[in-house]
Amino acid sequence: MKPLAGLRILDLTRVLAGPFATAILADLGAEVIKLEPPQGDDYRHIGPFTAGQSALFTLTNRGKASVVVDLKTPEGQALARDLAARCDVVVENFRPGVAARLGLGAEALRAANPGLVYCSISGFGQQGPAAGLPAYDLVAQAMSGWMAATGEEDGAPLKVGEALGDVAAGLYAVIAILAALVGRGQTGCGAALDVAMVDCLVAMLPTSHALHLYAGVPVARVGNRHPLSTPFGAFRTADGHAIIAVLGSRQFAALCAVIGAPEAAADPRFASDELRTTHEPALRALIEGWTAQHSTDAVVAALAAAQVPTAPILTLAQQLASEHARARALVTALPHHALGTAPVVGQPVRFDGAAPLAATGAPALGGQTRAVLEGLGLSRKQIDGLIAAGIVTETTDD
C-alpha cells in the first residue's frame, strides 16, 4: 500500500521537524528529493554515530534521494526552481523570509506552478512579532505551556523527554500537506501552509485548555497524576511503580475489589471522578497500601485480569524487545549505502493490515544528484560543468 505513489516532493528542510514529516511521506510512497547544501543536513554531523553515519539522520531521512546544490549561487537557485516546477509539494524550514530571498518562496514557486502545495515550518510562524526569532524544540516547549504543566507537584518545570515540538510540527505538516493535496484535487489549486512549532504544541494541550478556558483555574504541575481524573498515575509497588488509569465508576469498583477494599467504591469521598481528585491523597494511601505489598508484575497482572487499565513503566529497550513490538514490527531494517542495513522506526499506521515503509534507508550526501538532474533534462556535459563549478556535488559515499 503506497497511497502517495506518483507524488513528488522537494524537501528543503534540515534537522528534525521537516525531515520527520517528509520521511513519513516517503513511507507512504511519495518520491522525496532532499536538496542539501554542500556540507549536508546539519543532522549528518550530530551523533550518535555508527560507522561514521549519524543515527538521527539515518532515522529521519529514509527513502529520500539526496541532491547537493549550492543555493548561495544563482545557478543553484535556478536549479532548485526548476525542480520545484516539477514537484507537487515543497517543504522548507528556513527562517521566515530566507526562502523568498533565494527566489524559492511560496509566491514565486506557486506563480510558476499553481498546483504546488508549499509548506513552511518554523518556530513561530511566517507572520507575527516573533516570526524572525530562531527556535529550537526547547524554546517551543518553554513558550507553549508544556513545560509549565510538566514536572513534579510544587517542583520546577520540566521539558518532555523528547523533541516534541519538532515531532508535533512534523505531524501537523503531514496532515496539512495531505489535506491541501485533497483540496488541489477538487480545485486544481495548491496552497501555502504555515506550520509553527509553538502553535502546534499549544494545540496539543486539551486538558490545559479545559482548565484555563472553561474552568478558569491555573494549570498546575501534578507530576504523574492526571490533573482532572483520579486514580490516574504511577503508584508505588514493592519493586518500583505501576501505572493505574481509572476512568468511571465501573473501573473504580473493579479496582477497589482487586485491592481488597470493595467498600471504597461506595465511599462518598470517592463517589465521582471530581471527588476522587479532591481526595487524591487519601485514595492514593488506600491503593498503595495494597500495591506496595506486591511486585509490579503482580500488580499489573491482577489489575489487567479485572480489566483495569494498567501497565509497568518500560524503558524503550524493554518496549522494543516486547512481544507487542515484535508483533507490530515497530522496528524495521532498511538497506543502507554505508551500513548495509539500518534499523528505522517508520510511520506506524496500518493500511489494510500493512504499515507502509520506505524501500531504502537514508541516502549518501549527493548520491542521487546526477540522476535527478538527468531527470530535469540536463545532459551529462551540463551536469559535469555544474559539478566542476561547485554548484552541485555528486558523491557515492559519505
Give the overall silhouette.
elongated
* CATH architect. name of the largest domain: 3-Layer(aba) Sandwich
At the first level of CATH, what is the class of the largest domain?
Answer: Alpha Beta
Please give the domain count: 2
* CATH topology descriptor of the largest domain: Rossmann fold
Over the alpha carbons, how many angstroms does the gyration radius reach? 25 Å
Measured distance between first and last alpha carbons: 31 Å
Strands, count: 14
The average pLDDT value, as a whole number, equals 96
SSE layout and pairing:
Elements: E1 8-12, H1 17-27, E2 31-36, E3 49-50, E4 53-54, H2 55-60, E5 64-69, H3 74-85, E6 89-92, H4 98-101, H5 106-112, E7 117-122, H6 137-144, H7 146-149, H8 164-187, E8 191-196, H9 197-203, H10 206-215, E9 232-237, E10 240-245, H11 249-258, H12 273-278, H13 280-291, H14 296-305, E11 310-312, H15 316-320, H16 323-328, E12 332-336, E13 340-344, H17 369-375, H18 380-388, E14 392-393
Parallel strand pairs: 1-2, 1-6, 2-5, 6-7, 7-8
Antiparallel strand pairs: 3-4, 5-14, 9-10, 10-11, 12-13
Helix pairs in contact: 1-8, 6-9, 8-9
Keywords: Transferase
InterPro entries: CoA-transferase_III_domain, CoA-Trfase_fam_III, CoA-Trfase_III_dom3_sf, CoA-Trfase_III_dom_1_sf
Pfam families: CoA_transf_3
Task: Provide structural commentary.
The protein has 398 residues and is α/β, with parallel strands linked by helices. It folds into two domains: 8-203 and 329-393, Rossmann fold (3-Layer(aba) Sandwich), CATH 3.40.50.10540; 232-317, formyl-coa transferase, domain 3. The protein has helices spanning 17-27, 55-60, 74-85, 98-101, 106-112, 137-144, 146-149, 164-187, 197-203, 206-215, 249-258, 273-278, 280-291, 296-305, 316-320, 323-328, 369-375, 380-388, and strands at residues 8-12, 31-36, 49-50, 53-54, 64-69, 89-92, 117-122, 191-196, 232-237, 240-245, 310-312, 332-336, 340-344, 392-393. Helix 1 (17-27) links the parallel strand 1 and strand 2. Helix 8 crosses helix 9. The longest helix has 24 residues, at 164-187. The radius of gyration is 25 Å and the shape is elongated. It comes from Paenirhodobacter ferrireducens. Keywords: Transferase. GO terms for molecular function: CoA-transferase activity.
